[in-house]
Amino acid sequence: MAKARKEELDLLAAEASQQIVFKLPDAENATVHALRAIIAARAFKGKLLGCRGASSLASPPPAEDGAAPADPPPAEADKGTPEVELREVTEAAVQQAVDWAYTGRVSVSDGNWKDLLAASSQMGVEGIAEAVDRHFAEPGALTPGRAAEVLAAAHRHSAAALKARCLAVVDADWAGAACPEGGGFAQLPKDVLQEILARDTLRAGELAVFHAVVAWGKAQLARERAAAPPAEAA
C-alpha cells in the first residue's frame, strides 16, 4: 500500500498527464489525485469515463488498414489533466476508493458506510459496494431497526446485493423495520415502499401495513411543507 502510493506520487510529479483529479465541491472544494491508468483500468472498468465533467481517458481508435493512429485533435490534446466532479461525497471516502484501486481492500464501519456507497456509485466502484454488503452481513450488523435506513441508501446508490439483504430483513420483521424510533419507512422513497408492499414474501398484517403507509404519508407531507418556500405576505 505505502509502496504503491509512493510510486504513484513519483509518477505524478514526473508527468501531470498521468493524473486524474477528483474535485469535491461539497467537501470544501477538496481534490483527490490519482493515477488515471490505474483508476480507469483496474478499478472502474471504464465506467468512470461517463462521469460528469471527466475528460476522455480512452486511447484513440486504431486507424484503418494498419496505418498509425492519427494524432488527437488540438482541442483534445490541450485538455491536460482530466477532472471528475463528485457531488455529496467526503474527501475521506474518495481517498478510500482510490486506495481500494491500489490494494483491493477497504475498511467499512458504521461511521463511513454511507459515504463509501455515495463514492462508489458515482465512481463506478462495484467492489466497495460489495464490501459494504459484507459489512452488513456480519451477525447483528443489519438489525430490523436499521433496515429502512440502509435500504434507502442501497436503493439510491444502486447497491443491488445490499438492497436485497435489506428487503429480506423487512420481509422477516415488518414491525421492527417499520419502528419509527429508527426512522422507519418514513425515510424510504415512494417506489421502494411500493416495491416492499408488492412482495409475496412480506410477513405483515393489513392493519400494520395501513399504519406504516399512513405514517409514511404524514412524513412526506411534513417534508414537502418544510421544503416549500414561505408564502409572501399580503
UniProtKB/TrEMBL annotation:
Gene3D superfamilies in the cross-refs: 1.25.40.420, Potassium Channel Kv1.1, Chain A
SMART domains: BTB
One Pfam family matching this protein: BTB
Region (Disordered): 56-83
InterPro entries xrefs: BACK (IPR011705), BTB-POZ/Galectin-3-binding (IPR051481), BTB/POZ_dom (IPR000210), SKP1/BTB/POZ_sf (IPR011333)
Residue ranges constituting the BTB domain according to the UniProt record: 18-140
The organism's place on the tree of life at top rank: Eukaryota
Name the UniProt record assigns to this protein: BTB domain-containing protein
